[in-house]
Specification:
Layout (H helix, E strand, L loop, with lengths): L2 E7 L6 E2 L20 H4 L4 E6 L4 E6 L11 H14 L8 E3 L2 H7 L13 E3 H11 L2 H12 L2 H15 L22 H14 L1 H7 L4 E4 L2 E4 L11 E9 L3 E10 L2 E10 L2 H18 E7 L4 E8 L5 E5 L4 E6 L4 E11 L1 E2 L7 E9 L5 E7 L8 H12 L3
Parallel strand pairs: 13-17
Antiparallel strand pairs: 1-16, 2-16, 3-4, 3-11, 5-6, 7-8, 9-10, 10-11, 12-15, 13-14, 14-19, 16-18, 18-19
Helix pairs in contact: 2-6, 2-7, 4-5, 5-6
Length: about 400
């Protein structure tokens, strides 16, 4: 019977890690400690700040509270497209047409990239429009083209939410247009989704997220993300607004090897959202520091393999890992490798296998996803016989 296995304890809780100096590029000097207190300075009813490298929640308020995401929904729409591209089921060069139904229902409705009736547009242009100018029409054209129908694409969105562990989310539309509460999410779930997008699809994230503006059909529009070009390291991700949901923002910024992901929602006006979002991120960089555990693609451990040409597979993280502590404090932590196993072959390189559980003194445990560093084919007859003999003698 499969079970969760804690395979290795890689450190001791009483171990004090030496401080690792942070080396900043000249353009991104680390911020000094910021005296802002998020409990009073951040007025949003929903606020979450996550250090991506360590997985530590630096601050959380109402992070499991369900709310209407409005255009923040488009992060999931883009994630589904990224997954389809990675699986070879969608190509950025593919061309889809603005159907009559899509034009009739979505031409110039809300944020738009001004697609004309019957216009042929590439997936690349659609993703640019969705993430840069929040194109409602682009979402519908992408959904119809990628899945054959909006309903089919929404089914993919909900399947991905379940697969990612977004237990407080449901999607009823690919663009977040009001649907009488059928679409909802939480700050925690949006952080899970954004973390997956950044870590699993870094090249696609860099290509489509964080552009300051776009020109299409002779019309130039600016990105709605308020901090782009105004705060060092900010590169996304998405804003959202409807009268029912208020103003929300999923933001991300990277400095000195650290990346923070922020979710705020429920603001009454965009200027307050912009100002407090900046203060929130600056507090995250200034009041906390990260100490490195290992670099990206480092082998963290191994997992047992059942029915494979090899009896184990190396595990790695797609990004460097850190522990995050209040600035100036020592890091006391322990590490444990955990996976659901033994893992059944065949295994592809990059397949999710387990997680590295990080326990830092004085905070809740966090988990760093681990993937297979290489593939393991299914065992042939000779390998199965060899593995059986070794298992029988306890090797």
């Amino acid at each position: 019977m499969n079970r969760w296995l804690a395979l290795a304890t890689l450190g001791l809780l009483a171990f004090a890690a030496p401080a690792v100096p942070q080396i900043a590029t000249p353009a991104e000097a680390p911020a000094p400690p910021t005296p802002v207190d998020p409990d009073t300075a951040i007025t949003a009813p929903i606020a979450l700040l996550l250090d991506l490298g360590s997985g530590r929640e630096l601050y959380a308020r109402g992070d499991r509270r369900r709310f209407l995401p409005a255009s923040l929904t488009k992060i999931m729409t883009t994630w589904v497209a990224f997954e389809l591209i990675a699986a070879g089921r969608l190509d950025p060069r593919q061309r889809f047409a603005m159907s009559d139904a899509a034009f009739d229902n979505w031409h110039r409705v809300g944020s738009t990239m001004f697609l004309a009736r019957g216009q042929i547009v590439t997936v690349d242009e659609l993703l640019d429009g969705i993430m840069t100018v929040s194109a409602n029409d682009g979402c519908i054209v992408l959904a119809e083209g990628a899945s054959g129908s909006v309903e089919g694409f929404v089914a993919l969105m909900n399947a991905e939410a379940r697969r990612l562990g977004m237990t407080d989310s449901r999607f009823g539309t690919p663009n977040g247009w009001p649907d009488e509460g059928a679409t909802y999410t939480s700050a925690r779930d949006l952080a899970i989704l954004t973390r997956a997008m950044i870590t699993r699809h870094p090249a696609l994230y860099r290509r489509y997220v964080g552009r300051t503006g776009m020109s299409f059909n002779g019309i130039t529009q600016s990105n709605h993300v308020p901090l782009l070009g105004q705060m060092a390291g900010v590169d996304g991700v998405k804003t959202g607004f409807t009268n029912e949901s208020g103003f929300g923002f999923v933001g991300s910024a990277s400095r000195g090897g650290r990346r923070l992901v922020m979710v705020v929602a429920g603001y009454d006006n965009p200027r307050l959202r912009a100002r407090e979002s900046r203060e929130f991120l600056e507090w995250g960089f200034g009041a906390w520091e990260a100490q490195r555990l290992f670099g990206s693609d480092a082998t963290v451990g191994t997992a047992r393999v059942q029915g494979g040409s090899a009896r184990s597979v190396d595990l790695t993280s797609s990004h460097a890992a850190y522990v995050t502590v209040p600035r100036g404090s020592p890091a006391r932590y322990s590490l444990a490798l955990r996976y659901h196993g033994p893992v059944r072959a065949p295994i592809r390189a990059g397949d999710p296998v387990g997680e590295l559980v990080v326990k830092v003194e004085g905070q809740s445990p966090s988990a760093i996803p681990l993937v297979a560093a290489h593939g393991v084919a299914a065992a042939g007859p000779i390998a199965r016989l060899r593995n059986g003999v070794l298992e029988a003698v306890g090797l």
